Amino acid sequence: MQYLHTMVRVSDLQASLDFYCNQLGMREAKRKESEQGRFTLVFLTAPDDAERFERDGAPALELTYNWDPEEYGEGRNFGHLAFAVDDIYTTCQKLMDAGITINRPPRCGRMAFVRSPDNISIELLQKGEALPAAEPWKSMENTGHW
Fold first, then answer.
1. Within-domain flag for 73
2. Domain that holds residue 38
3. Angle 76-29-78 (CA atoms, 0-180°, nearest 5)?
4. Mean of the pLDDT values across residues 99-122?
5. Beta-ladder partners of 7
6. pLDDT of 49-97, one tens digit each?
């Protein structure tokens, strides 16, 4: 068995691409448009997985954009997407500077949660050992839920 991808439906493809690519740093690896099916599929990979995706199918995030508008609920049974990051504090600061709410700040130097434009929970985990606890994160309260 090989893990292939996680699919999430998005209501605004451009906002989602901005979030996942420009803010989180993912890269578009493949795109498929279906006129007959009236949808667009965009496969995103972490930068370190881009070559492996081309070669033998590294895990990817599949954004499914249905051209006919639909209302997508929060779907708490979905869970979340998880990404390892080089520096949890730098990543969270970059996201905050872009106007993205840090729902669960990285108080422990290890883990944080944010939400995508479609309200999908995203877990950010520090690669390797946790960083030492630091302000402003150490005393920052949770916002909403994740």
1. no
2. 5-66
3. 10
4. 94
5. 62
6. 888 888 877 889 999 999 998 877 766 546 688 898 999 999 999 999 9
- As given in the structure block, the two tokens for residue 90 are 């730098």
How many domains is the chain built from?
Answer: 2
Judge whether residue 101 has pLDDT over 90.
yes
* Residue 5 scores a pLDDT above 90: no
48 assigned to some structural domain: yes
145 domain residue, yes or no: no
The CATH number of the domain holding residue 105 is: 3.10.180.10
Long-range contacts of 16-24 (CB under 8 A, 24+ apart): 16/63, 16/65, 16/116, 16/117, 16/118, 17/42, 17/63, 18/117, 19/100, 19/116, 19/117, 20/44, 20/61, 20/63, 20/116, 22/98, 23/94, 23/95, 23/98, 23/100, 24/83, 24/91, 24/95, 24/122
42, 66, 90 - which closes a domain: 66
- Looking at this protein, which amino acid is placed at residue 133? A
- 38 domain-assigned: yes
From the list 136, 111, 107, the residue with the least C-alpha distance to 124 is 111
The per-residue pLDDT for 79 is 65
The catalytic residues are 123
